[in-house]
Write a structure and sequence with these properties.
Blueprint: H1 2-40, H2 42-67, H3 73-101, H4 103-122, H5 130-146, H6 148-193, H7 198-238, H8 243-253, H9 259-276, H10 278-308, H11 312-353
Length: 379
């Protein structure tokens, strides 16, 4: 008898494990199909994502214009969109104009830097002479000529990327305008279209997801501001020119994980090298490495974990996983996606853990009046 009971328990455990495994495989298959469909429709999804991120950043201004100043929705959305374009144009001016004014100095610095590298290469331990350097340059030119077709293909790919970027930006701006104009009416409309309990659950989850997305954008902007302030202060102390454009560039590129920090740091080190020399360039490199390590391992996990309700370790793991799966875009979207998954999971857990409401008490019905001369019956 005990042997048969053990056999029954074993079969029951195996059956339960098989059912769970089959359900897990179905969920993974559905997730794969969903990701495949998103990849096929990425040309539409990516502008939508950018528009949502920009809308969460500009929505407080639009809400102020609509609620406090009584602007009509279309007017408020138009004003905020134009203001956003003006700010972006101002940022470009802040970056481009100082660089253009000091282009001569930078060009001289580049020439001096190349000459310093040549002098360094001609001494020990390399001992490269002019003939060796000329031969190296000839080899490089020959290699470039042999790869001319590849370079043309890369150039065409780059131009295609630029064109796609312009189209994506224009589409994202139009979507941002419509989100700012009609956003508050979307959830009530969606609630009227859904049946039964979905009319409550889906709008609630989307409202929480919107708040979470706004927290992500604000936290990312705060982290970028910290990077810009600390790196800009370090560049100013060292005496590197173009401090303000470099600080603005650092703030903007902070929204692009990994590559943005590398690009901004490379530009700062390059300018320090061609204008100040090797020593100051190494000091700037050390400053950037320290700030980026603090930002990536301390500031960003702490700020985003508070704003998004995620543990700092979850933020780090999400960025690592997203970057490994989808590169730069995956690293950019990893944290908000993890936060949205947490929102959905938390809501489902709340609904499953809620106790059923107690039965409503029956209404008090007064007893029938008794005949004359009799006491009313209480039964």
């Amino acid at each position: 008898m005990p042997a048969s009971l053990n056999a029954d328990k074993t079969r029951s455990a195996l059956r339960t494990t098989a059912v769970l495994s089959a359900q897990t495989l179905v969920v993974l298959l559905l997730a794969y199909v969903l990701l495949w469909m998103m990849g096929r429709a990425w040309s539409v999804i990516w502008p939508l994502v950018i528009a949502l991120l920009i809308t969460t950043l500009t929505w407080p201004i639009a809400r102020f214009l609509r609620d406090r100043l009584r602007f009509r929705p279309a007017l408020a959305a138009g004003v905020v969109t134009v203001l956003f374009l003006v700010v972006m144009a101002g940022v470009l001016v802040v970056i481009i104009v100082p660089v253009a004014n000091q282009s001569g100095e930078l060009a001289d610095g580049v020439v001096n830097g190349i000459q310093q590298v040549r002098e360094w290469a001609s001494g020990p331990p390399l001992n490269f002479g002019d003939d060796d350097i000329s031969q190296t340059l000839d080899t490089v030119v020959a290699e470039l000529q042999s790869r001319a077709s590849s370079i043309v293909n890369y150039t065409l790919t780059g131009l295609n990327t630029v064109v796609n970027g312009v189209v994506t930006t224009v589409l994202a701006l139009f979507l941002m305008f419509f989100f700012l104009k009609d956003g508050p009416r979307f959830l009530p409309w969606l609630s009227r279209q859904l049946p039964g309990r979905l009319a409550v659950d889906v709008p609630t989850v989307m409202h929480r997801g919107w708040d979470t997305l706004g927290a992500f954008v604000r936290s990312q902007a705060f982290v970028g501001l910290l990077d810009a302030v600390f790196i800009g202060l370090g560049l100013w102390i060292v005496g590197v020119p173009l401090v303000l454009p470099l600080a603005v560039l650092t703030f903007i590129t902070a929204f692009i994980p990994i590559v943005g920090a590398l690009f901004a740091g490379f530009v700062a080190v390059l300018i320090a090298l061609v204008t100040q020399g090797w020593v100051d360039a190494l000091i700037v490199l050390a400053i950037i490495i320290v700030v980026q390590q603090l930002e990536g391992n301390v500031f960003q996990p702490m700020v985003q974990s508070r704003g998004l309700g995620l543990h700092a370790a979850v933020v780090l793991l999400a960025v690592t996983l997203g970057g490994g799966l989808a590169g730069i875009i995956g690293a950019l979207l990893a944290v908000p996606v993890a936060a949205l998954v947490s929102v959905v999971y938390t809501y489902i857990r709340e609904q499953l853990s809620d106790e059923p409401p107690p039965p409503e008490p029956e209404p008090d019905i007064p007893p029938d009046p008794a005949p004359d001369g009799e006491e009313p019956s209480m039964v």
